[in-house]
Design a protein that fits this description.
Helix 9 crosses helix 11. The longest helix has 18 residues. This protein is mainly α.
Amino acid sequence: MSSKLITKKEAPEVLDLLLEAYPEAGCALHYDTVFHLLEAVMLSAQTTDVSVNKISPELFSRYPGPEDMAGASQADVEDIIRSIGLYKNKAKNLIAMSRTLVKDFDGEVPGDLDSLMKLPGVGRKTANVVLAEGFGEQRIAVDTHVFRVSNRLGLADEKDVLSTEKRLMRVLPEDRWTQAHHLLIFHGRRCCKARKPECSSCPVLEHCRHPQA
């Protein structure tokens, strides 16, 4: 591992600076149950949280629980979520996931990583978000923003998502993993953007190992 990476001792200061810049950082998805959280996270892949929040109230009211979604018509679900990306595949996964919950988990969202990842359409990132937000565990879910920002900033130097997650778990304080996930997402959306990072206004520029400008 490169000696130029941000150290375990330095990492809390980076988080403190990001927290000062983004005190409102947190889960932007709207939900009222762990099941609805799981659905919202599944729907958020390759689309914005804002877009998901626009369609989720109707989805949640029409199909309040796993049993309801398990018996849904795919065409009806597609019609509700049509405005977001990959809606056909997402509708299929929502129904399949719900059927698996009813069949194998008594209609309850499981609270462990392995069980969550057995659900159709649920990958490691989605499972980590559900565990963090729905069950209060300290988790780092690595999406495109977290992957880009952490590797650009120097918290990691990895080629894939899983290696990045493991590196972040080693360098960041465990009691701040979930917070770090949100802070890195907010920083990625608002400042450390993919194509043109706004380095001149970056709150952690002094710590950045790969400034773009």
